[in-house]
Amino acid sequence: MPRSKNKRHKPTPSKPSSRPAPRKRSFSPRRLVRGVLIAVAILAVPAAWFAMEARQAREVSDLSVIGGGAPVVVQVHEPGCSSCEQLLEQAQEARSRLDEELTLRRANIASSSGRRFAYEYGVSQSTLVLFDASGDVVEIKRGVVAADELEADFMALQSLPRPRRR
After folding, report:
1. Are strands 137-142 and 103-108 parallel, antiparallel or unpaired?
2. Residue (of 131, 133, 117) closest to 68 by Cα position
3. What pLDDT digit, counting tens, does each position of 58-81 carry?
4. Is residue 80 part of a domain?
5. Would you give the DSSP letter of residue 111?
6. Residue ranges for the chain with pLDDT beneath 50
7. What is the DSSP secondary structure assignment for residue 81, as one 8-state letter?
């Protein structure tokens, strides 16, 4: 009886490569420093962006400026609220038309300080509370208000007498 042939594939002997074998890199302080600097640069951009965003959020929500000698407008808002965003756009447009700077702050009712503010003044989201320079409420605007109307309100707010400094 004839012997059966082995059908398994036999590896062929490897042929020498035309490329030289890669050299093993030795430790290089210069390469280490370069790698660390690249990593720091990559991480620094998001860290700086996050720090700027956090600082801006604190400034916009700082309600301690009320009664500080200049008129202030506070928008009560909730994140994700489309009418709140529309109101903010209208308020910013109206403020940009003014000759003098007007302080615009936001009270986020999703935060404890924002809820406290809303409760204290009896307001809810999509509301503007206009304060005179002494910190007294001049007017409360509820819902989305057109920029033209807000511009007139902001101009009237700025024309109110300011308290004298002693």
Report:
1. unpaired
2. 133
3. 556 788 888 888 899 999 999 889
4. yes
5. S
6. 56
7. -
Give me the number of domains the chain comprises: 1
Residue 20 lies in a domain: no
What angle separates helix 82-96 from helix 147-159, to the nearest 10 degrees? 50
Q: According to the model, what pLDDT value does residue 13 have?
A: 60
Sheet strands (E) in 18-161: 72-77, 103-108, 127-131, 137-142
| 3-class DSSP assignment, residue 60 | helix
pTM above 0.85, yes or no: no
Residue 129 structural domain: 65-159
Length of the chain: 166
27 in any annotated domain? no
Tokens for 77, please give them.
Answer: 């808002």
Residues whose CB is less than 8 angstroms from the CB of residue 128 and which lie 6 or more positions away in sequence, other chains included: 73, 74, 75, 76, 87, 91, 140, 141, 145, 150
Instruction: State residue 153's pLDDT score.
Output: 93
Chain centroid to CA 44:
17
Cα(73)–Cα(66) distance, integer angstroms = 9
Query: Residue 12 falls within a domain, yes or no?
Result: no
Amino acid identity of 107?
Answer: A
CATH no. for residue 83? Answer: 3.40.30.10
CB 71 within 8 A of CB 133: yes
